[in-house]
Amino acid sequence: MPTDAEFLSFYKEEHAKGIAALMGREAALAARWPEKADRMAYFAWRKKRGREEMNAHEMTPISREDLKKMIATMNYNRDIECGKLVNFLQRTIAPWLPVGSDRWGEIYRISPAAYGLRPDQPMPKTDRELVPMNVLGVNTNVQPRIPVRSRQANFSEESTKSNESDDLETGGFVFHQIGNLEQWGDEPENLTSYEDAANGTWLPTDFHVVVRFGRSGAANGIYIIHDFYPVDERGSRDRKIVTDWWGCLPGGGPRFSIAKIAKEITDLGFGRTFDLTEALDYPVELVRAVRTPEDATIRVTVA
User: Fold this and answer.
1) CA angle 227, 232, 237 (to 5 degrees)
2) CB neighbours of 144 closer than 8 A, spacing ≥ 6?
3) Residues in CB range of 189: below 8 A, 6 or more apart
4) Where are the strands (E) in 2-119, listed by range?
5) 0.70 surpassed by pTM
6) Cα(first)–Cα(last) distance of the chain, in Å?
7) CB neighbours (10 Å) of residue 218?
8) Cβ of 90: how many Cβ atoms within 10 Å?
9) Environment class of 35 (CB within 10 Å of its CB; exposed 0-12, middle 13-18, buried 19+)
10) Is 89 within 8 Å of 179 (Cβ atoms)?
């Protein structure tokens, strides 16, 4: 039976040849080990190696500062960079990010996640390439029928116009999801260190944190958006769930569906107080995002 060292040597030899040699890999394997039992042992070894590499990758953490730097400086139009960010956000071990306090004294953090929000129309009709749902768009001049609120003048219930350019970014923008907004569940004086934060209780808020970005792909503000599609008692997210207290932070204050909390992710942190700016007190529409021929990311539909 071949040894692990022999399996590793063959593995490195074949992968050094690149993808062009992929079709001949089975023949090379048969030439190296004519016995079927030896080849099956190699397949078992390769599967085990892949599992170990994946586990090692999952367990390799990114630091809190490196994650913040990535969020602040990456190009959100580039699939590879977005893929790396999603990978870090979705890991079993990922650093949470401190947000700070609202004006009512409640303390918040970001629990990393790339898929917290969902669009009102998950599968819209379009001839363009749909971007994965870690990136979505918001139409701020569209007011869905549910939840019921006094309708803004000239606002429709749903966007139906195909977005051709999005050059001015009027009436909305695209964003990348970075996590769930959580509230400190203990007395403020009991949060004195990152160790307290790591071991303490944090509560959901029904808001998610996103990074707005423009046609250049550069980050352009940190926002929080209310989630109208939380997981229901059946474990589904198909129904729009509306409560009497939708859009309210735990500490109090006005009702809103979306608000800006910082210019950059590096502006947030414990010991800092954030303000809600650009807040909208009516429901907004979330839509899928698409790629343009120029490799920009825009909303699929607009009002």
Assistant:
1) 60
2) 120, 157, 158, 240, 283, 284, 285
3) none
4) 97-101, 107-112
5) yes
6) 67
7) 15
8) 14
9) exposed
10) yes
pLDDT in tens, 42-85: 888 888 887 776 665 555 678 999 999 999 999 999 998 999 99
Token representation of residue 50: 């892949």
Pairwise CA distance, residues 182 & 203, whole Å = 5
Tokens linked to 65: 């500062």
3-state secondary structure of 64: helix
Q: Are 97 and 268 in contact (CB under 8 A)?
A: yes
Contacts of 225 (CB under 8 A, 6+ apart): 117, 138, 175, 207, 208, 210, 257, 258, 284, 286
Higher pLDDT, 256 or 30: 256
Q: Of 176, 170, 209, give the one whose Cα is nearest residue 297.
A: 176
On the question of pLDDT at 209 being above 90, the answer is yes
Say if residue 132 is exposed, middle or buried (CB neighbours under 10 Å; 0-12, 13-18, 19+): middle
Q: Which residues pair with 109 in a beta bridge?
A: 98, 182
- The three-state secondary structure class of 12 is helix
Residues 288 and 276 sit within 8 Å (Cβ to Cβ): no
